[in-house]
Amino acid sequence: MKKITQFSKDQFTRGTTELRGVLGLVNTQISLISDLSWSQEILDKLTLNPKNILLHYMTEPPKCNFIEVTTFFDGAILGIDIMKSQKVFPTLFSIERTKDGPKILNDNNGSIKVFDASSIVEITKNYLQKFPILGGEMLIEAHAETNPPISEGKAYCVLAIGKPKNPDQNYLLMEDAGSIIESKGQKIPDILESIALSILGCEQIENNQRKYFGGEQTEYQEIYLVYNFRDIPQGDLGWAQVQVLYVAPPKDILFNEIKDNNLK
Predict the structure, then answer these.
(1) Is 261 left (phi over 0), alpha (psi -120 to 50) or beta?
(2) What does the pLDDT look like over 48-78, one tens digit per residue?
(3) SS3 of 217, please?
(4) Cα 90 to the chain's mean position, in Å?
(5) What are the DSSP calls for 14-71, one per residue?
């Protein structure tokens, strides 16, 4: 069977307005204005608004038209089902359901496993290098972004993906982006625990609503975290974005042809 690297270079990833059955391409990216290969003298001439525009542009595929939608989707996240079958996602922690609410456990004994799925970001980048998004395409996206304060600290962007016990129910996406200052006691693990718990918070809200409006109860059994952290030197400017693009893949790409993760 043909490998993905043997496909024609002239194939593109197309946009879509159909949410059912599409592949989500995950991106987490943090850019700094100092990433531009310009002299400091030129960078200093840029006022705040042009800097923000440039930083934002550095985190998105160029020449695309975006439609922002809600975070509830029906479909697959490119890489998760493929890579999970190979057991490449390490477990970060687990969550136990208790009568007082969810409890974080720093081991694998909880009923809900929280996985580090950050490796699918490289899958997305490699995929788009070989099958770039066609310019001018209409893309559906879910995203969160932030322009952190100009001070020493870390910018972060985190995406949590909740996988329901019932495979016929929708995946749930929760996006978060911001900044932390570790000298003030803010810690990366706290951010990851917070976004994981938000999935279960949404689960409770969904189920409370369904008690009144009908529908099957939801139970998320696995949570995948895709995240990125980057230091922001004092005086620099950063832009953090987490994003899921819903686009149609080239017609020749099938799950069974990329399950070996041959995207390099």
Answers:
(1) left
(2) 899 988 998 888 877 777 777 655 555 667 7
(3) coil
(4) 17
(5) EE-S--TTEEEEEEEEEEEGGGSSS-HHHHHHS-HHHHHHHHHHHTS-TT-EEEE--S
Cα distances from 36 to residues 33, 40, 42, 148, 238, in angstroms, run 6, 10, 10, 18, 12
Alpha carbons 26 and 92: distance in angstroms, whole number: 19
CB-neighbour burial class of residue 99 (10 A; exposed 0-12, middle 13-18, buried 19+): exposed
What does each C-alpha distance from 24 to 36, 52, 73 come to in angstroms?
29, 26, 10
Q: What is the pTM of this model?
A: 0.85
Do the strands 112-116 and 138-146 form a parallel or antiparallel pair, or are they unpaired?
unpaired
**d(Cα 166, Cα 6) in Å, to the nearest integer?**
36
- Beta strand pairing status for 22-32 and 75-77? parallel
Report which of 72, 142, 81, 167 is spatially closest to residue 117, judged by C-alpha positions: 81
How far apart are alpha carbons 10 and 4 in whole angstroms? Answer: 13
Model confidence pLDDT, tens digit, residues 80-118: 766 666 667 899 999 999 988 999 999 888 899 999 999
Q: Which residues of 163-179 are buried (b: 16+ CB within 10 A; e: fewer)?
A: bbeeeebbbbbbbbbbb
Domain 12-249 fold:
Pyruvoyl-Dependent Histidine Decarboxylase; Chain B (3.50.20)
Q: Where are the domains of the chain?
A: 12-249
